[in-house]
Protein: Gamma-glutamyl phosphate reductase
Organism: Litchfieldella qijiaojingensis
Amino acid sequence: MSRHASPVNDDNVKDTAASSDDVVAYMTSLGQAARAAGAAMRRHDTAAKNAALLAMARHLEVSRTSLLDANARDLARGRETGLDAAPLDRLALDDGRIDAMIEGLHQVAALPDPVGEIDGLRSRPSGIQVGQMRVPLGVIGIIYESRPNVTVEAASLCLKAGNACILRGGSEARESNAAIAACIDAGLREAGLPTSAVQVVATTDRAAVGCLIAMPEYVDVIIPRGGKSLIERISREARVPVIKHLDGVCHVYVDATADLDKAYAIAVNAKTQRYGTCNTMETLLLDAPVAAELLPRLAAAYAEHGVELRGCERTRSIVEGVVPAGEEDWAAEYLAPVLAIRVVDGIEDAMAHIERYGSHHTDAIVTENYGLARRFLAEVDSSSVMVNASTRFADGFEYGLGAEIGISTDKLHARGPVGLEGLTTRKYVVLGDGHVRG
Amino acid sequence: MSRHASPVNDDNVKDTAASSDDVVAYMTSLGQAARAAGAAMRRHDTAAKNAALLAMARHLEVSRTSLLDANARDLARGRETGLDAAPLDRLALDDGRIDAMIEGLHQVAALPDPVGEIDGLRSRPSGIQVGQMRVPLGVIGIIYESRPNVTVEAASLCLKAGNACILRGGSEARESNAAIAACIDAGLREAGLPTSAVQVVATTDRAAVGCLIAMPEYVDVIIPRGGKSLIERISREARVPVIKHLDGVCHVYVDATADLDKAYAIAVNAKTQRYGTCNTMETLLLDAPVAAELLPRLAAAYAEHGVELRGCERTRSIVEGVVPAGEEDWAAEYLAPVLAIRVVDGIEDAMAHIERYGSHHTDAIVTENYGLARRFLAEVDSSSVMVNASTRFADGFEYGLGAEIGISTDKLHARGPVGLEGLTTRKYVVLGDGHVRG
């Protein structure tokens, strides 16, 4: 079926039983088409996938006017319906953002194709050879909010990893997403790939999300991108595995054995380089012997940046103007110029704090002691553990993944920044020559 | 807390609100103890884990009499309550089975430790080094049925991979499991590992399973081992990721380009070497040009083994005595001396059949054609895909994993036979020297 077939009536969908039945039928048809496209994708090679990505980029380039027009209609409707400035900004496209989408497609096309790589092919005593081949997951459902550029990012990464995808963007971006979808569609056609390999959900009925996350027969994994409440709701209700990104309550622990200049640079950067990102430090843990020397220097730097400090009693006894920190501060993901500071007694105390209050996202130690560095790396149970580096490095691009579909705070499958590899799985391949089991 | 603390009253637990509260409190205490033990396990090295495994083996050796006594009480109660012969056989211990448990512990101790391995440590343009370290999952819940030797297998694999585990065996094996648990406990103590690293659930109240699968704060993954109905129920109700093993509807496709002697050997072995295993062939697909030559030879061999044949019309026109196969036969996991046979027209037809009716477990092609072998490996979406080998090879030991906790039919995390590596995850490690993000 065509990905533009049977779109349910859009704006004026009512939450009635009849329209719900329509949504179920529509989402089922998308699921079936995606499953078929996913199977077909296993027959297409790297060259075809790259050709499609580059063709999509060309279609975005020549469609700038219609993209900006569609986006202007979304923005006008957003303003009418009283959207705040922040979501309006996320929704907005301009030439720079279209350039970035085009550049992103070129970058994904240039990435090595993970599909087909065989690891560890070894001969067994029985005579068979056994290895593991990297293969697409199959069908990926992505649920996101107002940013229309996610449509291009998600489509390109899923496609490069050999998957079919179903994309459900925010209703506020529906005209922008439809215009982008047309470019994606044209690119797929041009490269001879199945157009159902990328399907953009054409209804804004919220029941569509409920369907998408409950079709294990058609969808292999759901990746929600958005606020915590969206992700929590989807994780709770999904009947399909979810790769999710929850809190980033990140710590920097400065041990007594730290080089204090490095500690200063890292503690300032981890907090102030950006406030709203998940890998920003939210709690600074200072080993007692260095607190008195380091805290005043840091407090001055944070004051310059306008960072509010909330601290334990020992912190407050060293520097002035620190708000008393409570239990809720140790667990807080501020995403704002606010920092919790605690003076601790050594690495055990620091690791116990991280285990109790952290979110297992990204945690760093600053130390010159080899044994402590080794312990911290082994014992802190977070998706990224760092020695003498800013938590802000926890990012797919910084790690060299080339692109990032998100950061996983799950332990299974993909943990930490998720690139193309996280959109694949591995199956066993067995090569014999008439071998049978004895 | 000790793993034998606060066992809820056992046989005579009533399904009342009061006892349910007790079960919740009990399971919560196990969960908390497991979480703490999991954290502690990250501090213990390979030598300590191996010492514990070998100490457990010694304790099993010297406890033979009490193990057999406990098992005899389980068997007597099983007979009284009318257990069938098959579950009674699975429940029974004898010296040979105790030997096998002891040998299993030695084998797991001899396996390489997966924990701590760092892959792909590379320098990035920013100056940091980034790699991925293999680490324990944390806390693993295992739910199984009557076989008491699973208690030792599951405990040893979880422990070697650095995890804490909570084991919930069948109530019919409760005395055997308690006796085995005492040996495990003694082994952990002797090696200085936390005894809560392996906890055997001491209540037979079925509410305990419901608790175990709904404590994401204490349990990282559930592995159910048992019949399909158990696994489906757990997957449906779990609030924790589940590594599951559902159907094995395995196919052998014999292409026209096959060496027919190899095809004969593989088709006979894949069906008749064992009937009740998930990697047994359930449907044989024969390419039309070779069906007339191969089918009579195979039918004779299957007749000798007492295998009932159910076939499509073309099959029935070639050999006599074949029952007509219906849709339900193509989807059947017989686990019995029954085989479905279909004559197909080439690899496309065969792969379409496998995609439609298969369970994505293990599928094989028999061919001497390089291009067809390559296509089958790339395009068939199963946890094991094979060329010229019997599906019966799909097994952790045959693949060289050393041991197997189960076979996963999931796509995410672990796919196919799951060994120690499937009980671990990878986190990013970042090594810097005061590096900050620009």
About this structure: Chain B is about 45% helix and 20% strand. The longest strand of chain B covers residues 424-435.
